[in-house]
Design goal:
single chain; alpha+beta; Alpha-Beta Plaits; HS1/DABB1-like; Dabb; 28% strand; 31% helix; Dimeric_a/b-barrel
Length: 103
């Protein structure tokens, strides 16, 4: 199992509804990528004040590294990231952290 975790910082004027809508589109990729087993997302709610400005996160679970790579190279993933998510981010690529680990 590969866990794919992404932290994002959205621009302050972007609404929760807009964020939810675009992240839900990523979740719909589970219907076309069989190795994608789970997807969840949410707004940071940690009381620890250690988020370093990241406002939201999502996690995807894949059967294996190959399944994750299918997702990363899928044209719909690339479209959603380039056309919808990145324009909403505070500082482009600097507003994203990605961590994958095998479980």
């Amino acid at each position: 199992m590969i866990n794919h975790i992404v932290f994002l910082t959205f621009k302050a004027h972007i609404t929760e509804s807009e964020i939810n809508s675009v992240l839900e589109q990523l979740g719909h990729l589970m219907t076309v990528i069989p190795a994608m087993k789970d997807f969840s997302f949410g707004k940071n709610c940690s009381p620890e004040k250690l988020s370093q400005g990241y406002t939201h996160a999502f996690i995807m679970k894949f059967d294996d590294a190959h399944g994750r790579d299918v997702y990363l190279n899928h044209p719909e993933h690339k479209r959603i990231a380039a056309e919808l998510i990145f324009p909403m981010l505070e500082n482009g690529f600097e507003s994203v952290v990605v961590v994958d680990y095998a479980a």
